[in-house]
Amino acid sequence: MTRFLARRLAAAVLLCVGITLIAFVLTQLVPGDPAAANLGQRAIGDPEAVAAFRAKYGLDQPLPVQYLTYIGNVLQGNLGMSQQSHRPVAQDLAEYVPATIELAIFAIVLSLLVGVALGVVAAVNRDRWPDQVLRVVSLGGVSMPTFWVALVAFYLLFFKFGLLPGGGRLDPGMTPPPYATGFYTVDAALAGQWDVLASAAGHLVLPSLVLAVYTVGMLMRFTRASVLEILGNDYVRAARAKGLPERVVIMRHVLRPAMVAIITVAGVAFGSLLSGAVLVENIFSWPGLGQYAYRSAVNLDLPGIMGVSIVVAAVYILINLLVDLLYGVIDPRIRLT
Amino acid sequence: MTSDSTPLPAPRARRDPAARSPWRQPLALVGAAFVVLWVLVALLAPLLAPYGPLDQLADKLLEPSAQHWFGTDELGRDVLSRVIHGARVSLPLAFLLVAFAAALGSVVGAVAGFFGGWVDGALMRLADLVFAFPGIILAMAVAAALGPELRNAVLAVVVVSWPSYARLVRGLVLTARNSEYVMAGRLLGSSSVRTMMVDLRPNIAGPVLVMAALDVGNAVLLLSGLSFLGLGAQPPTAEWGAMVAAGAANFDRWWVGLFPGLSILTVVLAFNFVGDTLRDALDPRTARAIRG
Amino acid sequence: MGALLEVEDLTVWLATRGGPRKAVDGLSFQVDAGEIFGIAGESGSGKTMTALALLGLLPHAAKTAGRAVFEGRDLLAMPARELRAVRGRKIAMVSQDPSTSLHPMLSIETQLTEHMRHHLGLGKSEARGRAVELLATVRIPDPEQALRAHPAQFSGGMRQRIAIAVALACEPRLLLADEPTTALDVTVQAGILRLLHRLRRERDLAVIVITHDLGVMSAVADRICVMYGGRTAEVGPREDVLTRPRHPYTRGLLDALPHPEGGAATLQPIPGSPPALGAVPEGCPFHPRCGFAVPDCRAVRPEPVLVASGHLAACPPDPLGGAA
């Protein structure tokens, strides 16, 4: 298990280097000049301002040097200054990233509960009507444009019927809880501010429902396939031959091995939740990674884009490690070797 | 033996009833019907649309009525006409970029699978890299780097879409490379590359086409998502994602964003119905490779 | 005294892409308490489906007809709920490959005690105590330790002993053993067969051993049923069937066995291969491969008839009648 994890960790670090490299190369393809993009009209007439800007952000160095300097800084937790907010990128991200991660965690938990349950129902009713109906439901889920679902849900659930709170992370006028993790729900609970906790949780419902539409469909399909595959195993027949109630057979003998495939997909689903967040954060005025990435991208804010890439890579690596650890929890054979 | 004509035993029938003719499935038929419908809409758009997609009529943000079935948008353009013309943007681009992604990915996968060794290692690590990155963020970076244009958005989607084809084709090549008939081809003296081209093509084409069918939906989603963010089609182009963005800006006027989004949904759903059914008809191992 | 299990005219249809196909076709036999009954045949002869039909565990969308009366009640007509109360409790199963039939991710304790607790309502520690006894019965060294382990930590033979312990946990009356030794080494095989013998003696357990290996049959079975194409070819006491076979197929199977004294020269495989599912020929299913076939064999489906005391064979021409 230790060796297994060590190897996965090494691969993850390599991946991280690769992702930053790709992000770096991409930013170098930018036809626009970041100086011009950030200084605006002033830059055109003022070569000194441009030179000062370039020197300040190290843009006058050769590319490999820029990249190495950057990696060196990253390892010290220094992600550079955002050319757009004029604040350290690390500081920006500490605010924006938890908002998105909190949302994604809410959404993935919701998706797992609903998606796995429905997938199991579909599998055990294979080819009968619940399976047919759920197939349409899951295909519908993965066919919905998330940004449009966000719009429709926002219109109906907030604007039209006022069932759920609208944009933002808290009710208007409410002060965020003291910063500990950046997750408002956790921070509010830590500070004992129950009204803030309720508000923060309430504001999470609508966006995480919207984000979960796609991942529920995805997890349903994989759960169904995975459960069907497990159902064909001898050991399931053996469990049934023992006369166990079908519920026990499914929950204990089928779902556990099926979870190996399901959590793998859940890891991928988490990535797609981040993508979805990029699209819908705007609609829900959610001050998260997606909004930050978008603003950095359109403003050609290099440190900003690369900071986002690093965070996304780090999240990806963490998720994969978590998935690998869960394999060990689920399957004793992995733990034992 | 007294029996003079012993028939060869038929191959044992598979027990899996999920493998059936895709064309007897109602979902596939509904999907195919919608695909045909949307293709017709795209082809006949100028005849079907009551107004031009860019015509600015006097009345802005009109509710749906007999005159304007889907209402008008913030510039007084007929939403129905723009939805109809939107099919001419999304469909051809989706087909085009899936074709590009499939071609690129298949070549990379075939090269990786056939040469193996460090070539395989390098190409597959690259595929993993791209795969690992949330598609929209990478596409966003590409689109932002190259400038917010529809052409660049298409390029960005191709960049994030090829790895799944590469993985699939590599797997198929590796399986087929060791199979008996390719071995037989080698023994008969055909060169390895020729063997691959002639013998493997039919085995690879099926799964790749199924994956492409499923991918058209994804492509439409990604492309419209980029346009929604303002990184794809630019105003005043009648593009569904951009139209939903206009709906978001006027969210109290539900018709502005509802209908373009429904168009995206029906197109994507149609392709997914067809692709999903086709995949079920494939043999289970290939189907699994396509799924993930 | 009536039989423990009386199977009458059992027919099983499996769902295939081309529609339902008969896998078992009008099979009848009976098993007495404490008897070891062997069902022999090549793969595809329907022997495994027979066992699964008795337990109601046939694959998706399969159908059955006929009767299988166990302790006075028809298993095939029983509601699913009641059948579940019989499964594992009164009738248990050991399948071919213990590396796939034991759950790879659950501890031996869970797999050995869960059905005891369900069927017999035992508490955790009670069930655990019995589990230790059971493991000792099937001769697993250090049972306490074994309970905490997982299947992957045991050898094939040990796993099959554990699987047998699992099957015996609720003291069933009938054990269905589907190829119980096929996946094992010859020396391990002998141990498992001795174990089955001992259990039958000690517990008055009836066992249906399903195998393609007549060698295994000759070691354990009291009576043998030879199946071909989903039908009974021949059924009777072990001695009769193995030394005086009356069906050419049984004779073919015996000729295909290596004889300790004969050397390789006597090894004679049956020409051709068994019919595929749904492709069973008209008339006698064996006629295309039979060296004694007469024109009637192609038209008339033979029923098993009494050829000696307790010995039935489905071969009306009876070419081996004078042999032996």
Automatic annotation (TrEMBL), chain A:
Keywords: Cell membrane, Membrane, Transmembrane, Transmembrane helix, Transport. PROSITE patterns: ABC_TM1 (PS50928). Its main location: membrane. Gene3D superfamilies: MetI-like (1.10.3720.10). GO terms for cellular component: plasma membrane. Residues 97-327 form the ABC transmembrane type-1 domain. Pfam families: BPD_transp_1 (PF00528), BPD_transp_1_N (PF19300). It is found in: Cell membrane. It is a multi-pass membrane protein. GO terms for molecular function: dipeptide transmembrane transporter activity. InterPro entries: BPD_transp_1_N (IPR045621), MetI-like (IPR000515), MetI-like_sf (IPR035906). The chain crosses the membrane at residues 103-124, 136-158, 196-216, 260-284, 304-330. CDD domains: TM_PBP2 (cd06261). Belongs to the binding-protein-dependent transport system permease family. PANTHER family: DIPEPTIDE TRANSPORT SYSTEM PERMEASE PROTEIN DPPB-RELATED. This is Peptide ABC transporter permease.
From TrEMBL, chain B:
GO terms for biological process: transmembrane transport. The keyword Protease does not apply. This is Cytochrome c550. Residues 87-275 form the ABC transmembrane type-1 domain. GO terms for cellular component: plasma membrane. Belongs to the binding-protein-dependent transport system permease family. Gene3D superfamilies: MetI-like. InterPro entries: BP-dependent_transpt_permease, MetI-like, MetI-like_sf, OppC_N. It is a multi-pass membrane protein. The lineage of its organism: Bacteria, Bacillati, Actinomycetota, Actinomycetes, Streptosporangiales.
TrEMBL record, chain C:
Coiled coil: none annotated. SMART domains: AAA. InterPro entries: AAA+_ATPase, ABC_Ni/Peptide_Import, ABC_transporter-like_ATP-bd, ABC_transporter-like_CS, Oligopep_ABC_C, P-loop_NTPase. The keyword Transport applies. It comes from Acrocarpospora phusangensis. It comes from the Bacteria. Pfam families: ABC_tran, oligo_HPY. Its main location: membrane. It is a peripheral membrane protein. One of its GO terms (cellular component) is plasma membrane. One of its GO terms (molecular function) is ATP hydrolysis activity. Residues 5-254 form the ABC transporter domain. It is found in: Cell membrane. One of its GO terms (biological process) is peptide transport. This is Peptide ABC transporter ATP-binding protein. Transmembrane segments: none annotated. Belongs to the ABC transporter superfamily. Keywords: ATP-binding, Cell membrane, Membrane, Nucleotide-binding, Transport.
